[in-house]
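Researcher: I'd like a candidate sequence for this fold, 183 residues long. If you have to choose between options at a position, lean toward the conservative one.
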């Protein structure tokens, strides 16, 4: 087509071997090793460390219950023995004395008043309203527990931090390997 057009030479050549596969395999092996090591550590913790911690907590609780039972029995025995050993002391009974009688009161009729004081009625009404206001119960809002539905609640802060750090490392390695020159 064009003068000096040598397109046949490009088709005959074999493409160069890519050396980027080796670096990718090394990074993949390192990440696989980290994942395998973390799974192994979780298995050791879940099968060996955690059951021992739970058994130690159960043993400590059983020891405390036994100690409390011993103390309770000892105090009960002491209280029973103290109650049985204490007899009331004899007291001298005094001779009865003559009690003076109070003279009965005589009731005298009072003069009836003409009209009640209007201020007394006003004060009585105000006191009644105040008493009724104090008896009225107002509903107070009750607090509830926060929901436990987020991802941060399930994974926890350390797990989230480790995952974020691993993703940053993967991003940096991918950029570095993509821009590294191939030989």
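Model: Candidate sequence:
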């Amino acid at each position: 087509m064009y003068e000096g057009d040598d397109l046949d030479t490009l088709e005959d050549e074999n493409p160069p071997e890519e050396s980027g596969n080796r670096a990718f395999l090394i990074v993949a092996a390192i990440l696989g090793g980290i994942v395998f090591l973390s799974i192994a550590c979780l298995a050791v913790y879940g099968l060996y460390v955690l059951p021992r911690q739970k058994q130690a907590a159960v043993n400590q609780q059983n020891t405390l219950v036994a100690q409390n039972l011993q103390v309770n029995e000892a105090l009960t025995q002491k209280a029973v023995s103290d109650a049985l050993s204490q007899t009331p002391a004899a007291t001298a009974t005094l001779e009865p004395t003559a009690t003076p009688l109070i003279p009965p009161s005589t009731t005298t009729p009072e003069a009836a008043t003409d009209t009640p004081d209007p201020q007394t009625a006003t004060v009585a009404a105000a006191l009644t309203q105040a008493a009724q206001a104090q008896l009225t119960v107002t509903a107070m809002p009750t607090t509830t527990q926060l929901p436990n539905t987020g991802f941060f609640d399930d994974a926890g802060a350390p797990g989230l931090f480790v995952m974020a750090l691993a993703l940053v490392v993967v991003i940096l390695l991918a950029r570095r390997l993509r821009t590294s020159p191939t030989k």
